[in-house]
Write a structure and sequence with these properties.
The complex is a heterodimer.
Chain A (H helix, E strand, L loop, with lengths): L5 H31 L1 H12 E6 L6 E2 L5 E13 L10 H24 L20 E2 L8 E2 L2 H11 L8 E7 L1 H10 L6 E10 L7 H4 L2 E3 L5 H6 L7 E3 L2 H5 L1 H5 L3 E7 L5 E9 L6 E4 L3 H14 L8 E6 L6 E7 L1 E2 L2 H4 L4 H8 L9 H4 L9 H10 L9 E3 L2 E4 L12 E4 L10 E3 L1 H7 L2 H9 L11 H10 L21 H8 L5 H8 L9 H12 L3 E3 L4 E5 L5 E4 L4 E4 L4 H16 L16 E8 L15 E9 L6 E7 L5 H26 L4 H8 L2
Parallel strand pairs in A: 2-12, 4-15
Antiparallel strand pairs in A: 1-10, 2-3, 3-6, 3-7, 5-6, 8-9, 10-11, 12-21, 13-14, 13-26, 16-19, 17-18, 20-23, 21-22, 24-25, 25-26
Chain B lengths: L10 H21 L9 H21 L2 H25 L1 E3 L2 E7 L3 E3 L1 H19 L7 H20 L3 H17 L4 H13 L1 H7 L2 H11 L5 H15 L12 H4 L11 H34 L3 H25 L17 H19 L3
Antiparallel strand pairs in B: 1-2, 2-3
Helix pairs in contact in B: 1-2, 1-12, 2-14, 3-4, 3-5, 4-5, 4-6, 4-13, 5-6, 6-13, 10-12, 12-13, 12-14, 13-14
C-alpha cells in the first residue's frame, strides 16, 4: 500500500458519504417528529402529565309535600388498593413476594369477616309469567359483596403501576359496613389499603313512588358528548326516567374539578389553574302526599284482580291548583333494583313483564274513556243549547239510525244500543241529570249526533271534538314527567287520513259516549274532572311544587299554571256536577255505594269497551271493558279530583268505584287527623314564604 | 518519521469533543433533577471529563506505533479480563459487564475490547495489505475478531458485540477487502441469525420483538413511546432547559444514559438537537480526515475502526430515541452519563491525535 493509495481514499469518501447520509436521515426523522407530528406528540405529553380530578357533588334529595324522603344518597363500602403505596423492593422478586403476601392477607381478612355474616339471599327477580302476572315486582337483592382474587389484584396492580399508580383500584365492592370497618382496623399493617365510599341512590319509598321518582343509570352511549360538555365525569350516573330524568339538571349539581400535574407514577406534583368547588344539587319538594300515595297503592292492590287486569291506575289532583297529590300505576317495580345497576336479564324481565311495569300508565297509557267522557258531551250540549237542564229525550234500550242514503229502508238502518239493553231494560224519557246519573247511552248519542227521525239536531262531530280539546283531550297536559301521551280526539279529517273513510253519524254517536276512536290517559280524565269541579279552569298538572337548595332555602316555587278557562258557564257546570252528584247520591245512580257518610262525593262511572286481539270477545260476543271511575269531593268546595282506571276491569261501578271510595274515605280520615293536630305541611310552609 | 508534532494535533476536534462533553454534563444535570440518588452524577461526569482530557494528551504524546508492538499482549489480557468477568463480574441490568479492579475503580472490559480489537485486527491487516484479497488473510482476520466478540456476546452484552462486529467491518473495509467478501460476510451473518437468536438473553429478544411489534409488551414499549413523545413534543425551541415534562416528571426512564437525546430534543427543541447532531457529525468528519490523511496503514485502520464505533453508536442511540432502531442500551458517545464510556472514548481520541501528530 502506497501513500494515499487511490483505493483507500475512495473508501474513505464512501465512508464520508455514508456518514452524511446517516446524519441526514437522523435530522429528517427529528424534523418529522418535531414538526410534522409535533402537535400530536405535544398533545400526548399533556395527556401524560395532566389529570382531571372530579369531586362528586351530592345529588338533590326528593321530598314529598310533608318532607318525607323519597330519594336520597347513601354509600356503598368498597376496599381499594393504591399501587404506589404498596410495599416495594428494588428486587422485583422480593417486591412481588411482599405484595402477594399482602393481597393474600387482605383477601383472607375480607373472606373471614364475610363468612361470619348470614348467608346471602339469592336475587328474586323472576322471569315474566304470562299465566300468573304480578302487579308488584319487588327489588332484587342489592349486589352481593365481591372480592378480587390474589391473582386479579396482582394483575391490576401491575397494569396500573404505569401512569396511574396513585389511582385507587377497587378490590372488594359492596361490602357490608361492619366488614368494611373491620378491614379498616387492619390497615395499619396493610399499606396501600383504603376504604372508599361510593355514592348510591336510595329510594326509601321504593315501590310506592317508582313511577314518579324513576331511576338512574350510566350515561347512555349516544349522549356521552352532550353530558361531557355539561361537565359530567364519564363514569357519572344520570337520571333515566321520571323525575330523576326530568329534573336531571336541577338534581345533579356541579362536580368540583381540579386539574393536576402528575409524574409517571400518577403522583400529584402541582395544581394547574383554579380548582372549582363542588356545588350540591338542588332538592325537589313534590306535591305528592306519600301517605295518600300509599292509600291509593293499597286500595288498588286490594281492588284489582291480577288474573284479569294486567294494569291499573289511580290519579289524584287538587282541582284548585292542578298539583298532583298521588299517582299510582300498576304493575309497579321497585326502583331500588336499579340503584346498584341492574343486569340485562333483570332489566328484560321487568321491561317485558305483562302490563309493562316500566311505563307510568297514568300518563303514557291511552284508553277509550267510556262514559266518563259524557261529562264533556253534557257540558257541550248544555253550552251549545242543544239541550237545557229540562230537556227530556226518549231513551229506549236500542235505536236504529237510518242509513244516510236510504233513510226509508229499515233494513239498512244501524242499531245503537244502551248498556241497559243487555238486561232488557230502557231508560225511557230522561233529562240530562238522570242521563248522567244512570249513564244513559241513547241520550248522549242523540246529543252528540242528533236524531234525524225526531228532527233533533245534535252537536255534530266538529263541536264535540272542539269541546273535548278544550277539556284537555288530545293534547299534552304538560305534567313535569317525561313520556306523556297526548291521546286522540278523532274528527272527519283525522278519519280520512288515518283510515281513508268518511266520517258518519255513527262515529259521532260512539264518540259522544267516549267510545270509538277517542283515546285518553287517566291523567287527562282526571284533569277534566278537576275542571268540572272548579268551574272550568284547566290547570297544568304539576308534581314538583318547590325547589330548594342544599341548605333547604327556597329557590323556586311552582305556582299553579292555568292552561285555559273552559268557555262553559258556571250554571252549566253546576248541572254537570249535579248529575255527578246523583251518580253517587241518588238511588238510581250507577255508583250509589261510592257515597261517604260525612263527605258528599260526586263522580262518573265508565265501562269502556276495547279491542285487544289477545282477549277478543266473550261467548256472547261482547268486547272486554275497562273499568273507570272519576270523582271529586267534597261536592261543595272540592279539594280532590280522583280517577281510578282498571284495565280489563269490567264494570266501572263494580270495580273502579269501590277502589275510589276506599281512597276518598281514607283521604278524608287523613285530613281530619291533620286538622286535629294542626300540622302544617312543608309545602304550606314554603308557599307561605314564597314571593 | 517518528517526530511528534503538536502543531498537527487536531485542536478543532479536541475543542469539539470538550464542547459536546460539557453539553452532555449540562443535560445530565437536567435529566437527574429531583432524584436525590443521582444528584452527584454531573460532578462525577465532569471529573471523568477532566481525567479524559488528561488521557487525550498523554495518549497523544505516546507514539501509537510503539503501542502496536503491545497489541498482542494487550489483546490477550483483554480476553483474560473478559473471561474473568464471567466469574467475578457484577450483574447490572442483567449484564455481567463490570469488574471492580482490585477494588479501586470499576472498569468495563468490553470498552477495552474496542481498543484491543482495533489494534490487533488493524495491526494484522496492515501487515497483510497486499494479500487482503486472499482467503487466508480474511480467515485469519476473522479469527482474531471472533473470540473477543463471542466473549462479549456471552456476558451477555449483545449491543457491544454488535459494535465490535461493525468495528471489524469498518477496519476490513478500509483495508481494502474486496466487496464480494463484504457481501459474503453479510450474507453469512444473516444466515447465522437463527443461531444468534438462540444465544440471546430473554431481555434482548424482548427488545428486538418490541421493535418489530411494539404492542407486544406494553411495559417495555412504554420507554420507547415516552422517548418519542419527548422528542416530538419539543418543537423548534423546546420546552426550556429543566422544563421538559417528559423528563422532569419521569415519564422518560434512564434519562441520563439511554434516552439523553430525547431530553435534549424535548428541552432544547430542534435547534438544540441539531446543534448536538452537528457537533457529533463534525467530530466524526475530523476523525475520517485524520484516518484518511495518515500515511501509515496501521494508523489508518486503527482510527477507522474507532471512528466506526463512534459513528455506529451515534446512529444506534439517536435512532433508538426517535423510534428508528431497537433499544440496545448503548451510550451516546461523549453525551450519555458513564465514566467508562467517557474514558475509553478519550483513549480513542488520544490515539487518533497520536496518529494525526505522526503523519509522516
Amino acid at each position: 500500500m502506497t501513500k494515499h493509495s487511490p483505493s483507500t481514499t475512495t473508501r474513505f469518501w464512501v465512508l464520508r458519504i455514508v456518514t452524511v447520509l446517516i446524519f441526514v436521515t437522523l435530522l429528517a426523522q427529528l424534523a418529522r417528529l418535531q414538526f410534522f407530528q409535533g402537535a400530536g406528540y405535544q398533545q400526548e405529553a399533556i395527556v401524560n402529565r395532566t389529570r382531571v380530578v372530579r369531586v362528586k357533588a351530592p345529588r338533590g334529595v326528593i321530598y314529598d309535600r310533608d318532607g318525607r324522603i323519597l330519594a336520597r344518597n347513601t354509600a356503598v363500602y368498597n376496599i381499594v388498593l393504591i399501587p404506589a403505596e404498596l410495599p416495594d423492593d428494588p428486587d422485583y422478586e422480593i417486591s412481588q413476594q411482599k405484595r402477594r403476601a399482602l393481597f393474600q392477607e387482605l383477601y383472607d381478612i375480607i373472606h373471614e369477616k364475610l363468612a361470619a355474616l348470614p348467608p346471602p339471599v339469592v336475587p328474586t327477580i323472576e322471569p315474566p309469567d304470562r299465566k300468573n302476572p304480578k302487579l308488584v315486582i319487588e327489588a332484587s337483592q342489592p349486589p352481593q359483596p365481591s372480592v378480587l382474587t390474589v391473582d386479579e389484584m396482582d394483575a391490576l396492580v401491575l397494569e396500573r403501576e404505569l401512569g396511574s399508580a396513585f389511582l385507587p383500584i377497587v378490590v372488594a365492592s359492596n361490602l357490608p359496613r361492619e366488614v368494611a370497618m373491620a378491614v379498616v382496623e387492619e390497615t395499619y399493617r396493610l399499606p396501600g389499603v383504603h376504604l372508599q365510599l361510593q355514592p348510591r341512590r336510595e329510594y326509601p319509598s321504593g315501590l310506592l313512588t317508582s313511577h314518579i321518582i324513576g331511576y338512574m343509570g350510566p350515561i347512555p352511549k349516544e349522549q356521552e358528548k352532550e353530558y361531557a360538555e355539561k361537565g359530567y365525569a364519564p363514569d357519572a350516573w344520570v337520571g333515566w326516567s321520571d323525575l330523576e330524568y326530568q329534573y336531571e339538571d336541577v338534581l345533579h349539581g356541579k362536580p368540583g374539578v381540579r386539574v393536576i400535574e402528575v409524574d409517571v407514577k400518577g403522583k400529584e406534583k402541582r395544581v394547574i389553574g383554579e380548582p372549582t368547588e363542588p356545588v350540591s344539587g338542588k332538592n325537589l319538594i313534590l306535591s305528592i302526599d306519600l301517605e295518600l300515595q300509599k292509600i291509593m297503592f293499597d286500595a288498588l292492590i286490594a281492588g284489582v284482580n291480577p288474573k284479569r287486569s294486567t294494569s291499573a291506575v289511580a290519579v289524584a289532583v287538587d282541582p284548585r291548583t292542578g298539583y298532583v297529590l298521588g299517582m299510582v300505576s300498576l304493575p309497579v317495580y321497585d326502583i331500588n333494583a336499579f340503584a346498584d345497576g341492574i343486569t340485562e336479564d333483570e332489566y328484560n324481565a321487568i321491561v317485558n313483564a305483562p302490563g309493562l311495569p316500566l311505563l307510568d300508565h297514568a300518563i303514557t297509557g291511552i284508553y277509550p274513556p267510556g262514559s266518563t267522557f259524557k261529562l264533556v258531551t253534557a257540558a257541550a250540549g248544555l253550552e251549545e243549547q242543544i239541550i237545557s237542564s229540562k230537556t227530556i229525550l226518549n231513551a229506549p234500550g236500542i235505536i236504529y239510525l237510518p242509513n244516510r242514503n236510504f233513510p226509508d229502508d229499515p233494513d239498512l238502518a244501524q242499531p245503537f244500543v244502551c248498556w241497559i239493553y243487555k238486561s232488557g231494560g230502557e231508560h225511557g224519557d230522561i233529562n240530562v241529570l238522570e242521563a248522567l246519573a244512570e249513564s244513559c247511552d241513547i241520550f248522549f248519542y242523540k246529543i252528540g249526533g242528533g236524531w234525524p227521525p225526531g228532527d233533533f239536531e245534535g252537536l255534530g262531530v266538529e263541536q264535540l271534538a272542539e269541546y273535548a280539546r278544550m277539556f284537555g283531550y288530545g293534547e299534552l297536559s304538560g305534567i313535569d314527567l317525561p313520556g306523556e301521551n297526548q291521546g286522540l280526539v278523532p274528527d272527519p279529517k283525522w278519519k280520512r287520513i288515518a283510515k281513508g273513510e268518511r266520517w258518519v253519524t255513527g262515529d259521532t254517536y260512539n264518540m259522544a259516549i267516549g267510545q270509538g276512536d277517542v283515546l285518553a290517559t287517566p291523567l287527562q280524565v282526571t284533569m277534566m274532572t278537576a275542571a268540572v269541579a272548579n268551574d272550568g279552569i284547566l290547570y297544568k298538572p304539576q308534581v314538583v311544587a318547590a325547589i330548594t337548595d342544599a341548605e333547604n332555602h327556597l329557590v323556586q316555587f311552582n305556582r299553579p299554571v292555568v292552561r285555559r278557562e273552559i268557555p262553559v258557564s258556571t250554571k252549566n257546570f253546576e248541572i254537570v256536577r249535579q248529575g255527578m252528584w246523583m251518580v253517587v247520591n241518588w238511588e238510581y245512580g250507577t255508583a250509589p255505594d261510592a257515597a261517604l257518610p260525612d263527605i258528599e262525593v260526586a263522580g262518573k262511572t265508565g265501562t269502556a269497551e276495547f279491542f285487544d286481539p289477545q282477549l277478543g270477545r266473550d261467548l256472547a260476543g261482547n268486547l272486554p271493558t275497562h273499568a273507570w271511575f272519576t270523582a271529586f269531593a267534597p261536592y261543595e268546595d272540592p279539594e280532590i279530583a280522583l280517577t281510578v282506571f282498571v284495565y280489563n276491569g269490567g264494570e266501572g261501578s263494580m270495580v273502579a268505584a269501590p277502589i275510589a271510595t276506599e281512597i276518598l274515605q281514607k283521604y278524608f280520615e287523613l285530613k281530619a287527623r291533620d286538622e286535629a293536630t294542626g300540622a302544617q305541611s312543608l309545602l304550606d310552609q314554603l308557599e307561605a314564604i314564597a314571593p | 518519521m517518528n517526530r511528534q508534532n503538536w502543531r498537527q494535533f487536531d485542536w478543532l476536534l479536541f475543542f469539539a469533543i470538550v464542547l459536546v462533553s460539557i453539553f452532555g454534563i449540562v443535560m445530565i444535570n437536567s435529566a437527574i433533577k429531583g432524584d436525590p440518588e443521582l444528584v452527584d452524577l454531573p460532578k462525577r461526569q465532569a471529573f471523568y471529563l477532566g481525567v479524559g482530557i488528561l488521557l487525550v494528551f498523554s495518549v497523544a504524546a505516546f507514539n501509537y506505533r510503539l503501542l502496536r508492538t503491545l497489541s498482542i499482549p494487550f489483546y490477550l489480557s483483554v480476553l483474560a479480563l473478559l473471561a474473568m468477568v464471567g466469574a467475578a463480574g457484577q450483574t447490572i441490568f442483567g449484564a455481567q459487564s463490570w469488574i471492580n479492579f482490585f477494588g479501586l475503580f470499576p472498569i468495563q472490559p468490553s470498552e477495552l475490547a474496542k481498543v484491543a480489537l482495533a489494534m490487533a485486527l488493524g495491526g494484522y491487516l496492515a501487515d497483510n495489505l497486499d494479500h487482503i484479497g486472499e482467503l487466508r488473510v480474511v480467515f485469519f482476520g476473522v479469527l482474531i475478531s471472533l473470540p473477543i466478540l463471542a466473549l462479549v456476546a456471552l456476558q451477555p452484552d449483545l449491543g457491544t458485540a454488535i459494535v465490535l462486529a461493525v468495528e471489524a467491518a469498518f477496519i476490513f473495509f478500509v483495508a481494502g477487502l474486496p466487496i464480494r467478501y463484504m457481501v459474503a460476510g453479510f450474507v453469512l451473518a444473516l444466515l447465522s441469525a437463527p443461531l444468534a437468536w438462540n444465544m440471546l438473553a430473554e431481555h434482548q429478544r424482548t427488545r428486538i420483538l418490541i421493535f418489530i411489534d411494539p404492542a407486544a409488551n406494553p411495559d417495555a414499549y412504554f420507554n420507547v413511546k415516552q422517548a418519542l413523545v419527548g422528542v416530538g413534543s419539543g418543537g423548534l425551541l423546546g420546552k426550556g432547559y429543566g422544563q421538559g415534562t417528559q423528563s422532569q416528571l419521569h415519564f422518560l426512564r434512564v434519562r441520563h444514559t439511554d434516552f439523553i437525546f430525547s431530553v435534549v430534543a424535548e428541552e432544547l427543541g430542534f435547534i438544540g438537537a441539531t446543534m448536538l447532531l452537528f457537533l457529533l457529525f463534525f467530530i466524526i468528519w475530523r476523525l475520517w480526515r485524520i484516518a484518511d490523511r495518515s500515511e501509515d496503514p496501521f494508523g489508518k485502520l486503527l482510527v477507522a475502526g474507532l471512528t466506526g464505533v463512534i459513528l455506529f453508536q451515534t446512529l444506534v442511540v439517536v435512532g433508538m430515541n426517535m423510534g428508528l432502531l431497537p433499544v440496545t442500551g448503548l451510550p451516546l458517545p461523549f453525551v450519555s452519563y458513564g465514566g467508562n464510556a467517557m474514558l475509553s472514548l478519550m483513549i480513542f481520541i488520544g490515539l487518533a491525535q497520536s496518529v494525526a501528530m505522526r503523519r509522516s
